[in-house]
Amino acid sequence: MTDATNRALSAYSNIDLETAVNSASPLQLILLLYDGAIGALATAKGQMQDMKFAEKGRLISKAIGIIEGLRVVLDFDKGGEIAKNLNDLYEYMKHRLTIANLKNDPEGPAEVIRLLNDLRTAWAKLDERERANAVAEMAKVNQKQASRETLSLRA
Question: Which pLDDT belongs to residue 95?
Answer without folding.
Answer: 99
